């Protein structure tokens, strides 16, 4: 089964879909692929001016600009994967009706595009770290593991949302509200230490995205960053968001598999 899923034909199709996705996304744009770097940088600049210069947040956090930028980059990866994955099947409806292809490849292709954008943005983070004089920590080797956790969570959600969107077009509006609310419920713009109630901190960090953001800051920027392990005072606490990630992927795969046989007639 593994060999069939990752056969040479499927790999070639996946590569072609990723290339086409990149071309279409920036077609007609003057700056083209540069927007994949400019968008998070422009958002970072706005947030930095508002929250650091005016509201004076993060004064007690070492290297807070990098702390903020990394949080935005990791959140943008999650947001891109889920939002683009949601519409991926419907956007490729012509291809699905004309050619018999594994439907899941379409969702995977958008996830890889988001992963490529993340790699560009992480290079920018590293450049900012060098300019800012931020020390490169040995724990940074754990960052790919955290990115993989985010990828698996986002893929599970993308599979579920893309299958649901084929039948229920209201999903896109609902997800826009959910993703906006989740953004403010995740300590991306603010240090989690601003939340004084320890129980609220624990509740927030059960969210896998919040856990990844805080752990990412811990392993890459500063060990002063609070993590789910330090908040719960137990390394076993990490198993809770990991379990949520695994359950999300299983549900997403099962729902997508059940619904895909009806894609052609609903598109």
Summarize the topology.
Blueprint: H1 2-5, H2 8-25, H3 35-54, H4 64-91, H5 93-98, H6 104-132, H7 143-167, H8 171-185, H9 198-205, H10 208-220, H11 228-232, H12 239-259, H13 263-266
Helix pairs in contact: 2-6, 3-4, 4-6, 4-7, 4-8, 4-10, 6-7, 7-10, 7-12
What does this structure look like?
There is one protein chain. This protein is mainly alpha-helical and 267 residues long. The protein has one domain. The protein contains 13 helices and no strands. It is globular, with a radius of gyration of 19 Å. 34% of the residues are buried. The model has no long low-confidence stretch (mean pLDDT 85).
The tally of structural domains comes to: 1
Distance between the termini: 28 Å
Low-confidence segments? none
Number of helices: 13
Please give the radius of gyration in angstroms. Answer: 19 Å
In short:
The protein is mainly alpha-helical and 267 residues long. It has helices at residues 2-5, 8-25, 35-54, 64-91, 93-98, 104-132, 143-167, 171-185, 198-205, 208-220, 228-232, 239-259, 263-266. The chain has one domain (33-266).
Keywords:
267 residues, mainly alpha, 13 helices
């Amino acid at each position: 089964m593994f060999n069939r899923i990752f056969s040479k034909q499927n790999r070639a199709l996946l590569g072609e879909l990723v290339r086409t996705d990149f071309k279409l996304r920036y077609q007609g744009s003057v700056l083209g692929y540069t927007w994949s770097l400019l968008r998070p940088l422009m958002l970072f600049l706005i947030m930095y001016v508002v929250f650091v210069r005016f509201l004076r947040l993060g004064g007690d956090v070492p290297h807070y600009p990098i702390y903020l930028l990394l949080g935005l980059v990791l959140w943008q990866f999650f947001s891109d994967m889920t939002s683009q994955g949601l519409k991926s099947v419907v956007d490729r409806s012509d291809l699905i009706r004309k050619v018999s292809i594994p439907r899941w490849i379409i969702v995977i292709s958008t996830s890889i595009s988001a992963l490529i954008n993340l790699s560009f943005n992480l290079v920018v983070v590293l450049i900012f770290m060098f300019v800012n004089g931020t020390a490169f920590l040995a724990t940074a080797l754990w960052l790919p593991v955290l990115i993989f956790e985010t990828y698996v969570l986002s893929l599970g959600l993308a599979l579920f949302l893309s299958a649901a969107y084929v039948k229920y077009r209201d999903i896109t509006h609902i997800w826009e509200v959910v993703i906006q609310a989740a953004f403010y419920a995740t300590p991306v713009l603010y240090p989690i230490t601003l939340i004084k109630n320890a129980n609220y901190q624990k509740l927030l960090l059960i969210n896998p995205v919040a856990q990844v953001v805080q752990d990412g800051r811990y392993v890459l920027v500063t060990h002063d960053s609070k993590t789910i392990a330090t908040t719960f005072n137990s390394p076993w606490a990490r198993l809770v968001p990991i379990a949520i990630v695994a359950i999300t992927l299983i549900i997403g795969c099962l729902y997508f598999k059940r619904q895909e046989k009806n894609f052609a007639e609903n598109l």
